[in-house]
Each structure stands twice: as structure tokens, then as C-alpha cells.
Amino acid sequence: MGFQHFSTCFLLALCILSQGLAKGAHGFACNWGTRLTHPLPPQITVKLMRDNGFRQVKLFEADPDALKALGNSGIQVMVGIPNDLLANLAASVDAAIAWVNQNVSSYISKNGVDIRYVAVGNEAFLKTYNGRFVNSTFPAIQNIQAALIKAGLGRQVKVTTPLNADVYQSDSGLPSGGNFRPDIHGQMMSIIKFLSQNGGPLTFNIYPFLSLDADPHFPKEFAFFDGSAAPVVDGSITYTNVFDANYDTLITALEKNGFGQMPVIIGEVGWPTDGTANANIKNAQRFNQGLIDRIVKRQGSPKRPTPPDIYLFGFLDEDAKSIEPGPFERHWGVFNFDGSIKYPLNLGGGKQLVAARGVRYLPKQWCVMSTQANVQDPTAFGDSMSKACTYADCTPLSPGGSCSGLDIRGNASYAFNMYFQTMNQRKEACNFNGLSVITNINPSPPQSACQFKIMIDLGKHEKKSTSPSDAPKIQLNLMVMLLSSFIFVMLLLYV
Fold this sequence. Notes:
The protein has 495 residues and is an alpha/beta fold. It has 2 domains: 24-331, Glycosidases (TIM Barrel), CATH 3.20.20; 366-455 and 462-494, Methane Monooxygenase Hydroxylase, Chain G, domain 1, CATH 1.20.58. Helices cover 38% and strands 13% of the residues. The strands form 4 sheets. It has a 9-stranded parallel sheet with strand order 5-4-3-2-1-13-12-9-6. Strand 2, helix 3 (64-69) and strand 3 form a beta-alpha-beta unit. Helix 5 packs across helix 6 (134-150), helix 6 packs parallel to helix 7 and helix 11 (378-391) crosses helix 12 (408-422).
């Protein structure tokens, strides 16, 4: 009897202890974008996540290399479905079944990937899409849910859809006035009700940076968690930062429509480090440290003290990403493209960020403008800059960017080098109408945020990084870069 009593007490104590440890433990979540000309090898990327305590990741598409690397990693995965697939998935449940079989079931069974969510679309109701995806999003969600159930994954894998914060608004300008946009209210109610019935969360992207960058009159301090801006008072609640105010506007919208307990995930939130004046190391470190402190302390908002899962955007910089929203789009990473540290972050418990290991680079050489080059030849100079910045990332040269203070020769050297590196340092890639030369001396300005990069040597990593099967993905990344960079270089040359 005494032994049984002891055993029962011991087991009870063990359960309480384990629950306490589970509650006390925390991990981070991030977005892993793959729009890079020289991607960090997936195995190194996954190890970098694990080394820094990231236990959840969101992929914007079912990237085979990324998913394989995440197998048996202990990292929970949200797999995204791009918007251009929505119409097909909405029109055919068979197409949804095929997608789930290929991109979810196979990776779970064959590779041991811990897929927890399928994110159907990405900000499909964004105002700038002019309703293009409004009618296909909900049917696609329904068909993917049916496909997961058919695959026997209905309990294990939940459906969600990441939405931009512009799907809700407040006529009063205060969180208490929150409601969903009238033009999509019906679709939102259908989606929310369906997700609620099937145990799926809502996912929303909130960007204080965009609020600040888009409005010159926005109170800067209100964008940060430690800001000193005048607080916003909404009845009995006081808001000291725009993130809480934005999030609680959403919670109010859910409450007004009868879904006050609906689970919510923050799918994207972060701060870029380059491309505009507000996108810099100092601001990014300040914002992300404040965000991480909240995650570590498990701090929620005034209306929802229990915090949501928060996915930092993003994990790595993406030099081939579209810059249609702005030059800053390629610089959201907490880490540089190669997994090196941009700025220190305290991850809690005395733990600091650690950099990627095992990264191999191209030789230490740069392509720069020759000291004998004549910058007065407008045709040769203009054509050379256009060529370089159409095919490579010149966004640090944009107004307010980290390299915007360079003179005309510095601008040319930066552009020439980015093209040279993007083209894997091929000798002929440093041929700009006789204006350029290869050097072994690092041309980066001393004590400056402007850095002349050297790219990752893809040939020294896994062969699959440059295998024929990756050709379509590489080609797509280059096409995205080509289109957006062409617009950027026109602005750079004529503004």
C-alpha cells in the first residue's frame, strides 16, 4: 500500500514537472524563402535553424530540397501553396488529392517530415490583387481539406490560409472598431467557419515596418515594442505599439462575428535591413529583439494574453525575390544569404545567435570599375549599369540603402561586382565596355554597412544544388529577378 502510494505520488510529481518543463520551454518559428541565386545548402540551413532554437518553419512552396532536409529534424513544417495554383485546386478535388499525395503524404512517409499545416495561398485577398484570387481561395481550402482526409492526415495536418492584415479594418481607427472588409466579408466568414469546424487556425501577416515606411507621418516609436510614442487609448485599454493594436483589431473583428476563440497564427512579422532609409540594421535589431523578448516571455496582447505562434520573416535574405513592393523585399532575413549574422540577438537564457558552419565561397576576388575608366561616356556607363543591375541585386544602391552614399565610381563597382558574383565569377562576367577590372583587394568601404559580397560556391556543396532537376527553380528565380530588377535599374538611372 505504501509503495503504491509512493508510486502514485512519484508519477503525479513527474507529470507536473514535465508539464512545467513543457510550458517553460520555447522555440522560435521562421519563414524560409528560396528565391536566391546562390542558396545556402538546405542541410546547412536546417542545422542553422536547429542551432538557433527554431522549431517551426513555413515554406512558401513545397520545395523538394527543403522538405527533404527537414526530414527527421524535429522541426514542424507549414507547407505553402502558391496563389497561381489556387484556380486549379479549386476546380478539381482530384488535383488537390494529387497535390497532397506528392507534397505532403510522400514527405511524411518517405522522409519523416513533420508537416503540421498546409497554407493554401499567400495573402490571396490582398487589395492590390484586385480580387483575382477571391473566388478560388475557399474552394481550394475545401478541396485540400478533403484531400488530407482521404490521405488519412485530417487530424495530423491542418489547413490554414495566410492573409494580409488588410483583410480587416477599423472605421474608428481604434482596435475596438475592427471588422473585416465589406467586399470580402462573406468569403471571410465562409473560410473562418470552415477552418473552425476542421480545427484549422487563421494565419495573418502583420508588418509594422510597412506601416512606418508607407506613411511619412506615422509615429516611428509606435512601430517598436520599446517605443516612447504617445500611447493609443481605446476605452480601458492602452496600446504602446502598433503590433498589439493591429492584432487586437483582428481579435475584435473575430469577436464581432462570433469567432472570439478562433486560434490565430502570426505567419509573418519582421523588419528588413536594407533598401530604404527605415530598413537598416539598427531598426531591425531593435524590432526583432523586442519581438523575440515577447516570444520568450510568452507575452500576448491586451485582448488575448495567450500569445499566438509567431513566424519571423524571414530567415535568410533572398537576392532573387521580386522587389515590386520595394527594394527592401530582398533584405528581410535575420541572417544574411549565407547564414552569417547580421546583428546580435539575445534568444533568452543567455543564448545568442550563431552563424552557419561549413559554408564555402567563391575565391576572394571582386569586379570593380577600373581607375582608368572614363565615366563621362554616358552610353557605355549607362549600358553597363543597366546590364549589371538587371541581372543582379543592386537594391543596396537605392535611396536610403546601405550603399546609397557611394560616388559614381562606387556605384558602378558595386553593380559590376554583384553581376560578377551572380555569374559565378566567370572571367567574361567582368567585361563592361572596358570599364571594369578584377581585383583581389576588398573594395568594401571601411567601417560601413555597405559590403561588396562574395557568393557561395555552389560547386563545392551538394551536387543537387546545381543538378538538372533544379534548373526550373533556378530559371524561375532568375526570371523573377530579371523582371523586378529591370524596373529597379530604370529608376536608379533616371531618378
